[in-house]
Amino acid sequence: MTKEISRRDFIKIGSAAALGMTVLSGCTWNLQQATRMEMYAQAPEYTLPGEDFWFATTCRMCPAGCGAIVRVSNGRARKIEGNSDHPVSRGGLCARGQAGLQLLYHPDRLSQVLVRTGKRGQGQWGTTDWEQILARLAGIFQEVDPARVAILAGKLPHHHAELVTRFAEGLGAPAPLFYETQTSLDGRQVLQAAVQALFGEAALPVFDLGNAEVIFGFGADFLETWLSPVAYGKRYGDLRGRTLGRGVFVAFDPRLSMTAANADLWTPVPPGAEGLVALALGKILVDQGLGDPNAVADLAPFYAGVDVAAIAQQTGLEVGTLERFAHLFADAHRAVAIPGGELTGHTNGLEATQAVLALNYLMHPDGEQGGLFLSPAPPSRDLRLAPTASLADVQQLVERMAAGEVDALMVLDANPVYELPTGLGFVDALGKVANVITFATLPTETTALADIVLPTHTYLESWGYELVHPGAESLAVSAQQPVVQPLYDTRDPGDVLLALADRLGGKLARRLPWPNMVTFVQTRLTSLQLMEGNFQAEDADTFWVTWLQHGGWWSQDVAWKRPRLAEASSAALAVSPPAYAGEPETYPLHLLPVPSIPFGDGRHAGLPWLQETPDPMTTASWDTWIEVNPETARSLGIQAGDVVTVASPQGSIQAVAYEYPGIRPDVVAVPIGQGHQALGRWAKDRGANVLAILAPRVAANTGQWAWASTRVQLVKTGQRRPLPLLENNVGVDRVRESGRAPG
Amino acid sequence: MQRPLVRSPLLWLVGILVSSLAIVFTLSTVQGQASPAQAAETTPIPFSHQVHVEEVGVQCLFCHSQALRAPQASLPSLQTCMTCHAYITVDEKAQEQVQQLVQAYESQARVQWPDVYKQPDFVFFNHRAHLAKGVACQTCHGPVEQMGIVEKRVDMNMGFCLDCHRNQIQEHPEMPAVEKDRLLDCTTCHK
Questions:
Q1: What angle do CA A424, A696, A571 make, to 5 degrees?
Q2: ipTM for the predicted complex
Q3: Predicted structure pTM score
Q4: Residues A92, A81: contact at Cβ < 8 Å?
Q5: Window B:13-72, CB contacts with A under 8 Å
Q6: What residues of A are in contact with residue B71 (Cβ under 8 Å)?
């Protein structure tokens, strides 16, 4: 007699069995009916299904020139990493470098040549093919008087800078201007000018952090965006990772930047007064006979007339504190003082930078390990560096444009309509230029006002090289090669210039005689074949292939140079107090625009990975905020989340208030990079562009934009907007609401 | 009187329905595409292996070129097809089909083919290893050269694979022990 099964049991067993079979069949249900295999129309080169290829190339997301490797499978770039052999990046790569994939595969990329059909700025475009546009461009350059041609480019990679310079030379046009906001934010020009003044040559200073014991950073965000953050980050890691002594890092900064947050001590000095602190420290070293005796003797006149007590008052630091810092610097076996970008953003930038560089020299005039060095010179004339322009140079160009002296303006890898301060009047001046020709990868605010828009390859689709500057210890010529076939009907700007030269003939064709980019790049490398580097090759072809394989050539010997004090450099240095734009009564707060790690100067706001990347200090993303000291906020009646109008004498923007204790009460900070009307769907109409409201004030002696010298006022709008934050403010809000918050 | 197992006929009905659905479900998914008619429906261009391999004499590796070098055998690109079809003439009855091909190539279309011999995701089959040992394509894929549109003739379940692996061990006693182990090791195919 079988055991009876009740209804309940039957249903349970039955459903369990059915469920079991369904679930188990799900394990083998491989969507056979639903899967399809897709064939290529044209198989990409270097594809092996299921296998990856790695290509070494150079990252171009900022001017640093880190070596990168890209994993490609089935003809698609999948991942970008740092090249561990590369002397600058040493296997590291920052967030922007990683996001290069999104630039390559951005859905809003320019894919065809566009020509304006309606009026400028109306957004009416027709398309054409390259043959026709090259014919039209050749026509323009034949008709227009070369003296009335202007070229505005960003901080181009070297292969492009070389070609653009030759293009201008061949045409007989004025030299191109290589300017982008990042060069102002880094202070490249000022650094070179300071090195020129002190050490007699226009090279960029490089700081051997890894072997130092004490670092004094003056407005230096070397871990974030300044000059070569991956390289400095690696070296900083060397310093901190040492077994015997992890070093001491003191940051003099008006704001607790991410770099300052890594310091052992953050000293909030008034903006623009960092140079004064450096001067006072140097004076103390000289007066008390600390430092290298020869250097002290050489530089004593430098510090004549420096009043330490006065500086103590101006900076809010006591004389005793300054003396302690001086002793800390002097007692270290190796100490390094870094003049950062923020230092150069004031009207006294050049003197301040000189004061900081002099501090280095006082301790170690012979350029020992752990000190100040100068970036190596290019190895040959084939690899010359292009001079970076200043805002004053751009101002001159704008004045020429406004006066109707420019008939053809070519813009490459730059977005002046977005990044120049509105007060400069670029947009109005543009209206006076007959032919505006732009090269771009994504639609920008500048291409919107152009006549011809030429779509370009991204760096992942093109050939090139970079003489990395500032470099690391070795002289490095980094390689760039395409990792995928170009996705659209785009061209390398270099190829366009070469094709134009071919059509126009004459002197231009002699200056640009190469048929294509590959040939051109190969000619630049011939001088390296005779030098001792990371590999040897017997002939040019082998050298070329090996150069690409390694991701570049770098010298085996240490190539950076020791600074030698120039004759005329010991004149007394006066670091004048910085001048600001805006009356203190109306505009009581200093505005510090902060180059954000994801966007830099705003060029990468179109990439969603970077939009998503939270700011290291505030954890905010996807918006523009203003960092206000909590005391200041309270006195103004501003709470976190309030939308405030930030008004300068130049204009105003709106930003969401964020209470940030890591900033002086008289300073507010706004990240640079949002507020675009172009750059694709993720950047459009988001946040605000702080660059627009900055005063176009320049330092008289360098022409450098004093981008940190604008004063502002804050006005509540009465609106509120939640800021996307990773940090959780629920507890903070609750405490505040309950009235138990202090103050 | 014994209580009936399930009093309500409705519950019987539900129980049978659910169980049979589950069985049909399982069977259908394991078997995959069974009928040539089904296959013909989902094939985008009526490519005939029989014509190309038996009549014309194209070798397997000419199109499925990565089989010797990569884990996956790869589909040819449209460009591969065009290496001949850009130039040759075909029978009248094939002209329309070739037109389909040419149009797809010129418009850079993404032609999608049914995945006849797809393994589940936890099976990592490597063509290179098998071709290197001289295993013919037909051994696993059936007499493809005789098929018009490819049908699934072989049920490539784990037993099918292991049978052959075991046979290799039996037929080749001189095989090194490490190779014998590898043939039967779970992680060889399941990583």
A1: 135
A2: 0.72
A3: 0.85
A4: no
A5: 15, 18-19, 21-23, 25-26, 29-30, 32-33, 66, 69-72
A6: 49-51
